[in-house]
Amino acid sequence: MAAHAWHYLAVFDTHTEQPLYLGRSKRLASPDQRIVATARYGGCSFPACARPALDCEYHHTTAWAEGGATDVTNLAPVCGHHHTLADHGWAVRHDEYGRIEWLPPAWLDPHRTPRTNTYHRPADWYRHPRRTHQRQGWPPSQWAAG
Ligand SMILES: [Zn+2]
C-alpha cells in the first residue's frame, strides 16, 4: 500500500531558483525562506521587540494546525519569548501591505487593535504614518497614567 503523499506547487524565485513556497510539504522554514524574511522584516515582528532575525523562529500566520502553508508569505519572524504569546491569545496576520500585525487578546485590549513592529522597518513610519501610528499603539491607552 502506498504511503500518503503531499501534493504541492513549488514556486521558484526567478533570480536564484530557490523555493520560497513549500506549501504543506515541510513544516519548518527553509534557509532560503529565512533569508527572504530577514531581508523583509529585519527581526522579531512583535511590537517594539528589538531581537534581530537571526535570533528568531518562524511563525505560520495561518497556523500549520489549521492548514497553513510553509510559504514565505505565511511566515513571520518571532523571537522565542514572543512566539509563546501566539499560544496565549495573541493573533498574528499579514495586513494589506504585507506587514505583520499582532492582535492582542481581548482581556488586554477589548478592541484588539492591530499592532506592527517598526523597530526594524523605520521607513514604515514615512510610508504609512497615520496608519502605522494608530497600529503601533503600544502601550495600550488604558495603561497610560491618568
Ligand atoms: Zn520578540
UniProtKB/TrEMBL annotation:
GO molecular function: endonuclease activity
Domain HNH nuclease: start-end pairs: 32-84
Keywords, sorted A to Z: Endonuclease, Hydrolase, Nuclease
Lineage top rank: taxon: Bacteria
InterPro entries: DUF222, HNH, HNH_nuc
Similarity comment: Belongs to the Rv1128c/1148c/1588c/1702c/1945/3466 family.
UniProt name for this protein: HNH endonuclease
Organism the protein comes from: Skermania pinensis
